[in-house]
Amino acid sequence: xxxxxxxxxxxxxxxxxxxxxxxxxxxxxxxxxxxxxxxxxxxxxxxxxxxxxxxxxxxxxxxxxxxxxxxxxxxxxxxxxxxxxxxxxxxxxxxxxxxxxxxxxxxxxxxxxxxxxxxxxxxxxxxxxxxxxxxxxxxxxxxxxxxxxxxxxxxxxxxxxxxxxxxxxxxxxxxxxxxxxxxxxxxxxxxxxxxxxxxxxxxxxxxxxxxxxxxxxxxxxxxxxxxxxxxxxxxxxxxxxxxxxxxxxxxxxxxxxxxxxxxxxxxxxxxxxxxxxxxxxxxxxxxxxxxxxxxxxxxxxxxxxxxxxxxxxxxxxxxxxxxxxxxxxxxxxxxxxxxxxxxxxxxxxxxxxxxxxxxxxxxxxxxxxxxxxxxxxxxxxxxxxxxxxxxxxxxxxxxxxxxxxxxxxxxxxxxxxxxxxxxxxxxxxxxxxxxxxxxxxxxxxxxxxxxxxxxxxxxxxxxxxxxxxxxxxxxxxxxxxxxxxxxxxxxxxxxxxxxxxxxxxxxxxxxxxxxxxxxxxxx
Length: 523
Ligand SMILES: Nc1ncnc2c1ncn2[C@@H]1O[C@H](COP(=O)(O)OP(=O)(O)OP(=O)(O)O)[C@@H](O)[C@H]1O
What we know:
ATP hydrolysis activity; 3 domains; 6-stranded mixed β-sheet; ABC_transporter-like_CS; binds adenosine-5'-triphosphate; single chain; repeat; alpha/beta; 24% strand; 22 strands; cell membrane; Rossmann fold
């Protein structure tokens, strides 16, 4: 039996009162794909950061290919043969793919950077691992999936034999996920070891060989993927059964809350939203399906007011807000869960309470109506609100004063969702509301969104997860190349129909990937 590629023994790490890892043992077999799963805050990212030398454990040992190591930083880990692809890319947008890949380990000729050798190296690695890329392209112009391939190439260029991927599929479209998985398989078949952190059980079951589950910083399950079931994994992660919630399809929608008429954003060759009309009524969830980059985000931006449409109208509760500011639109009854929770959704240096307050400071009892006068707010009331929401949404934190940046990714997302739902606005725009969120929290957030609908709220839901749209939406619109190409009622929407709509839009690979995604349980 060959030596483990990596062996972690008794790893523990505390952050103040929080025990992020508690005596964790993990053995990675060479040439295998090992998935690490667990609820938000279970300690997965901390464990990966320890393995990659970014965080020092309080106790425990690490051995790479049988040799004990003591990393004092990522450079030591890289020298030992590890590579890591982070959730948030660390690339230079204004440099080319090749320059980014070789940065810090450049091929040289007569002491000078050898551009041609760099491009050649990228081409050679890309071909060996099946990574589709253009060495000369500027990284800033690439999609999330293409940027991720650059990160993978960076690790491979440094001869990484052990590749750590932290939630690599969160930003990918279904077809990009399919190609990433074939790259992972190819790397493992060539002898590399891949560690994959993800929340998505169907992904784990389709790509991994072994699975380790963490809960509360401890290992609660080890599985051979070939014999593991979705139910067992959910149980090891949450300690309970998780039931998928679904829209009952009952009730009659009320008045029109959002009306978009012939909206076009961009002109000519740069058109990103093309003549889109839709309406969302009170007590209704309208879903938008489609591959990211097909105009969904720009449509949302135009409805919100962060992007100016070239033509068309946006009406909120009958009032034309096309020329209004974001702030005015919000004050007329619009709440939003944005796609980019770190950039737009939250202020990571600010506390949970301060983040919860954003946009609520004019609301009683926190803002002007709290008897303190205009421009003042009651800190005590704000703290109470934050504490209540932390409890209601099961945000795993040591307290309301912690900066949002110190929360695990999924818990930071729960803060944004809690804040926006607390507005009780007539219209909620939710973009990827469960991105990076664990199965138990998905169940909870889905339940909240349905409560919102059932109590008369209107929701425009944009999601890459077709299973999420099928579970929640009363109607599903499919977007392709900026236009709405199909619309389905909840009763008539099926995997095949949505797949066909995507295929009809000229993207067979996407349709196939979407169907694959839909054929596995959503847990
Ligand atoms: N720098 C830090 N300071 C304080 N607490 C931290 C820090 N980093 C992590 N934590 C805490 O350690 C715990 C484990 O966090 P970690 O990010 O490892 O979880 P995770 O399993 O990766 O979660 P997610 O699925 O949400 O990304 C969480 O309670 C988190 O708040």
